[in-house]
Specification:
alpha/beta, UDP-N-acetylmuramoyl-L-alanine:D-glutamate ligase, 8 strands, globular
């Protein structure tokens, strides 16, 4: 399994897929640097006048609703329609779903138009999309990933996609298979935008691997291992960001084998 992960990482680095991100203002720089470090090419195009054309060039489309505005929602819908027509995988991040009616309804509207290849969120967001009565504080999860397993399975079957529930232990399902990713470090949630970075990395791996669940598993494992490597050198959240980007850039097969891949 580690060899399969390494093969996907090598493909990302060799093929340098373009990952089109319609994402939020908070994380654009972080996301772009992470994609570059892992070997992909990031682009952040939000204008409705160009998103269809830009999406058509991409290997994957990442939709992140973190900082919503009406014109961005229109651009997201247009980009998702183009991705569906071109067979381009879509990774959807329902940032803060459940926090406000507008935010949650936007998710329902977009997902109702075009089903993604992967939905990635924290437990509260995933439960909110599934219709659970769950309290959330912005993008913070008030539930553990395993508490959202039923909700994740429901979404996986509803949209015929893979679902990633991020947490101390990440849960990944597609309605038939289930994986856990135990890599990571408690310092990671202290860095703004690492969850959004995970979504972007899933996009990069989906661009080179047509099996959405496997691609997501590989991306989340890389994310967790690089978090561990970065935390070992970091003095706090500030230096954690720098060391994380370096870890993505320098990650090799030996490090992957040393940190392991959970077989479950």
């Amino acid at each position: 399994m580690v060899d399969e992960l390494w093969n996907d990482l090598r493909r990302v680095r060799e093929e340098a897929p373009l990952v089109h991100n319609i994402t939020n203002f908070v994380v654009m720089n972080n996301t772009a640097n992470a994609l570059l470090a892992v070997g992909a090419l990031p682009v952040m195009a939000h204008a409705v006048e160009e998103v269809a054309e830009m999406t058509a060039l991409a290997g994957a489309l990442v939709i992140n609703i973190g900082t919503l505005a009406r014109e961005w929602i229109e651009a997201m819908a247009t980009a998702m329609a183009t991705a569906r027509e071109r067979g381009i995988p879509i990774v959807f991040d329902p940032v803060g779903a459940g926090a406000t009616t507008f935010r949650t309804q936007t998710c329902f509207d977009l997902l109702g138009r075009v089903a993604p290849a992967v939905i990635r969120g924290n437990a509260s967001e995933i439960m909110a999309l599934a219709g659970s009565a769950v309290r959330t504080k912005g993008v913070d999860s008030s539930a553990a990933a395993d508490a959202a397993e039923d909700a994740a399975l429901l979404l996986a079957r509803r949209y015929s996609c893979a679902v990633v529930v991020s947490g101390a232990v990440d849960l990944l399902v597609d309605g038939k298979r289930k994986f856990l990713v135990r890599n990571g470090h408690p310092l990671m949630p202290k860095v703004t935008g690492l969850g959004c970075t995970a979504t972007a990395l899933v996009g990069a791996f989906c661009a080179v691997n047509g099996d959405s669940l496997t691609a997501a598993r590989h991306a989340m494992t890389v994310m967790g291992i690089c978090g561990e490597l970065a935390a070992a050198k970091a003095a706090g959240p500030g230096s954690m960001q720098v060391h994380f980007i370096d870890a993505l850039y320098n990650l090799d097969a030996e490090q992957l084998r040393a940190h392991g891949l959970d077989p479950r």
